Amino acid sequence: xxxxxxxxxxxxxxxxxxxxxxxxxxxxxxxxxxxxxxxxxxxxxxxxxx
Length: 50
Description:
The chain is 66% helix and 0% strand. It has 1 helix and no strands. The protein has one helix at residues 17-49. The longest helix has 33 residues, at 17-49. The model has no long low-confidence stretch (mean pLDDT 86).
């Protein structure tokens, strides 16, 4: 069976909060523009295909 010892977690030196915040903001921007682009494509499909 597997060992049920204490779990060890790797830790990094320091907390790179600026990088975390930049990555999160990039993710939000990509999702926002993806939703807007999808909505525009759906509207254009509705307009031209019906």
